[in-house]
Write a structure and sequence with these properties.
single chain; 307 residues; alpha/beta; Rossmann fold; 2 domains; 7-stranded parallel beta sheet; 5-stranded antiparallel beta sheet; 34% helix; 27% strand; globular
Length: 307
């Protein structure tokens, strides 16, 4: 598969470095307005197994984008701020039949991508929005938490990383168990910053986490899913740009599977297998561990505090 990475700095470089090690990736083109930046990244990640080359592209020029995306099977969009960039790259991807992933970590522009659902389906394009560190890892942890409940009321997604805790309103679907069956339910969050999860005796929030609350009015059940200790102690929680690029590339890894590439615009939680994702995350970070890649904490007395 031919992969186009928009943006060569920071998260873009981490995405290229990770994608270069994935089976099924035949070529990677790093497209950046600054050709020199793209060339330096290509030189640092030179790989004899596949072609990695640089390409200068003006991201505000639709014709430039059309030319770049026509030569690719999938595009990884790392160029922000997404609130300002709008839907231009996704529109061009749909027009050229190029599958799409982005690292958007803001809830408003992420939801706006859903406006192109009909066009993406008609064009046979699979688009995954919010596949970066904050929303990507966060929504997959939230899905992990939701699967522990019989019926889901609310889902909270957040990451602290190296910055202040951020939460955002999100939409989509999650799988949950009801009467022994897996069913889909609404996935929604809150916009609140700062916020914290008051869970047992803990007074601090994990760097990445997802929380799901049960819908049973007689039993206030809250489930928190967080990364394993080795993952929380890794560079994943130290360098936000690296975490974003790795997450984006691992979303690509699952997109390489024909069975996963369903046309439409999706959140990570609607199409990415969280168990496989977190296992691949450990492998990419070269973590040798015998424990599960995620931890589940359950507390009937827990609550979400907004302030």
């Amino acid at each position: 598969m031919r992969v186009l990475v928009l943006g060569g700095a920071a998260a873009g470089e981490a995405a290229v470095s990770t994608a270069a090690g994935l089976p099924g990736v035949a070529e990677i083109v790093i497209a950046d307005p600054d050709l020199g930046t793209a060339e330096r990244v290509a030189d640092r990640i030179a790989d004899r197994r596949r072609s990695i080359r640089a390409h200068g592209v003006e991201l505000t020029d639709r014709d430039h984008l059309l030319g770049a995306l026509r030569a690719a099977d999938v595009v990884l969009d790392t160029v922000g701020p997404y609130r300002e960039c709008g839907l231009t790259v996704l529109r061009v991807a749909i027009e050229t039949g190029t599958h799409y992933l982005d690292a958007c970590d803001e809830w408003e522009p992420t939801l706006r991508r859903g406006e192109l659902e009909v066009e993406a389906r008609a064009g046979g394009v699979c688009a995954i929005a919010g596949m970066g560190a904050s929303l990507g890892i966060g929504t997959l942890l939230a899905l992990t938490a939701a699967r522990e409940l019989g019926c889901v009321r609310d889902v909270f997604v957040a990451s602290t990383g190296t910055h202040a805790l951020r939460t955002g309103r999100i939409g989509g679907t999650v799988l949950s168990r009801r009467d022994g069956r897996l069913v889909t339910s609404s996935m929604r969050g809150v916009q609140a910053s700062p916020a914290s999860v008051v869970f047992g005796s803990s007074t601090t929030s994990p760097p990445f986490f997802g929380v799901a609350t049960g819908a049973n009015p007689e039993r206030a059940e809250v489930v928190l899913a967080r990364l394993s200790v080795p993952l929380e102690d890794s560079l994943l929680t130290i360098d936000t740009a690296t975490a974003t690029g790795i997450s984006l590339a691992l979303g690509l890894y699952q997109l390489l599977d024909d069975a996963v590439r369903r046309p439409g615009v999706h959140l990570a939680s609607a199409i990415i297998d969280p168990e496989l994702f977190f296992r691949d995350l450990e492998r990419v970070l070269r973590l040798v561990t015998t424990c599960a890649s995620t931890r589940i904490e359950r507390d009937c007395g827990a609550r979400i505090r907004r302030h």
